[in-house]
Write a structure and sequence with these properties.
Helix content is 13%, strand content 41%. It contains 3 helices and 9 strands; from the N terminus they run βαββαββββαββ.
């Protein structure tokens, strides 16, 4: 798998202004966690990290950079074609599995792998899985106000 690795890949400027919302999340290598639960790996060896991610409802999935992938020891599972906000196309690796935590909510996901040290993005699917909402007026990510006590899913 040979994804594009341009230095100017996303070129996001980090600022905390209206329209850009950031949140702290924890990422855990789910394979490590499973090995620890089964007694094959000491719990203190489960690889995990905290990240400050940009909540981006226009992105579909979680996107982390190559440095974070290496820190977590995630395996590349496949490569997928993606479209950037400017309409350009790229091929990115996808790695996982990841347990993603925000406050007291969590989901299991994988992640697109951005080159180098690009900014991490929290996309729509993991936000939906944890029933989170971007609150533009407060410039924050939080629990869906309609379900503050926990996610509510529909199977209709």
């Amino acid at each position: 798998m040979n994804p594009n690795t341009e230095d100017d890949f996303c070129n996001f400027e980090r600022k905390n202004s209206m329209g850009l919302v950031y949140a702290d999340v924890e990422l855990i290598n789910l394979a490590d966690e499973t090995l620890a639960e089964d007694g094959y790996l000491p719990i203190e060896q489960v690889r995990k990290t905290m990240l400050n991610v940009m909540a981006d409802s226009g992105a579909i999935r979680l996107a982390i950079n190559e440095n974070t992938r290496k820190t977590l020891g995630l395996r590349v599972r496949q490569a997928m074609d993606i479209t950037l906000a400017d309409g350009s196309r790229r091929t990115l690796n996808v790695a996982g599995p990841i347990r993603l935590k925000f406050k007291q909510r969590e989901c299991i996901t994988d992640a697109f792998i951005l080159p180098g040290n690009e900014e991490a993005l929290l996309g729509a699917v993991p936000m939906e899985l944890m029933d989170l909402a971007i609150m533009p007026a407060q410039n924050k990510l939080d629990y869906n106000p309609s379900h503050p006590d926990g996610p509510l899913f529909s199977l209709k």
